[in-house]
Amino acid sequence: MNYRIGVIRGDGTGPEVVAEALKVLEAVREGFEIEPAEFDLGADRYLRTGEVLPDEELERLKGCDAILLGAVGDPRVQPGILERDLLLRIRFALDQYVNLRPVIRYPGVQTLVPSHTEDDVNFVVVRENSEGLYTGTGGFHRKGTPHEVAVQESINTRHGVERIVRYAFDVASNRRKHLTLVHKTNVLTFAGDLYQRVVDEVAAEFPSVQTDYVHVDAACIYFLDQPSRFDVIVTDNMFGDIITDLGAMIQGGMGVASGANIAPDGVSMFEPIGGTAPDHAGRGTINPLAAIAAVQMLLASLGEEKAADRVHTGIGYATQRMKSMRAGEMGYGTPEVGDLVVEGATS
Ligand code: IPM
Ligand code: MN
Questions:
Q1: Which residue stretches of the chain have pLDDT < 70?
Q2: CA of 147 to the centre of ligand 2 (A)
Q3: N or C: which end of the chain has fewer CB within 10 A?
Q4: Plot region of 31 (φ>0 → left; ψ -120 to 50 → alpha; else → beta)
Q5: What residue owns the CA closest to ligand 1's atom 12?
């Protein structure tokens, strides 16, 4: 097998963490080849040429087997441009309608919540990734005047809700068989109602999966107070964005949290979810484990389970070695962490 992997190193600390992720990918592969396809996309290209994602580049992305993304966003670029025209455009154009974000604790990782045991935190958030508040629907009226109106609408289609809910049930049926809808049905009485009805309908197809409902604000409390009540969470795009940052913190910080933008019938993209961390950029101090965990998911999605398991073992080996660190602290340089993972994955 020969896999063509699109590589978008991106901005800030993106290139540093992608370098470690590729190092690990190369070290764990067995019985298949990796052909990296580099994409010069992000702030530098935009500032140099004014281009964010030319159509030819999008076409090239569609020709990959999977995509690895570092991070995009840069303080020199007006907020929203790279996020919307690069990251969100790829998610939408490639129909990566699932954002799968595991919230798991690697061995030895310290977090800010001392009462959690290592086993307490082990769930997955299935975030809808193609609609909701992210479609950019709405606009201004009388902009810049005292009577200005800003409308930002949440779009929830039956098709979109059904496919994400079905995907989440499928994930749950392969785990502890418990699915929680997280929404705000007491206030979002239309979108929330649609989600709840779809969950109830699809539940009939998955009799082995038990369902539950939690309001999004209460879910934040449970993340801290009782995370073990969750196995699989399904939620809309915006709630999923917010709760997965909190999820990252109960895993041990943004340095270890990764996500997969999955197009079940197309090209998926894997990323650390922590962003570009501009104040760490170029210093070799950023934690690459999130990007490395993204590679684990990438391998699993290609069906390379053995290599994916090796990455998992390597990450656990690295976190054990890094155990004396406090939450959020690293203590090792970026390349040394990559080396630790390789050591653990190949020994
Ligand atoms: C994420 C990020 C993005 C999002 C931003 C950069 C557009 O926060 O992947 O969680 O909101 O989805
Ligand atoms: Mn986010």
A1: 327
A2: 31
A3: C
A4: left
A5: 241
| Residue 98: DSSP 8-state | E
Residue 106 lies in a domain: no
Q: What is the pTM of this model?
A: 0.97
Alpha carbons 156 and 310: distance in angstroms, whole number: 39
CA distance 19 to 16: 5
Domain membership of residue 126 (yes or no) is yes
Tokens 């396809």 found at:
37
Note down the domain range covering 221. 111-251
Query: Known catalytic residue: 85?
Result: no
Shared-domain flag, residues 86 and 204: no
Q: Given CA atoms 120, 332, 284, 61 in this order, what sign does their dihedral have? A: negative
Domain count, the chain: 2
Looking at the fold, whether 67 and 182 belong to one and the same domain comes out as no
In a domain, 264, yes or no: yes
Ligand 1 centroid to residue 208 C-alpha, Å: 33
pLDDT tens digit string along 318-331?
A: 999 998 777 677 78
Decide: 235 and 181 in contact? Cβ < 8 Å.
Answer: yes
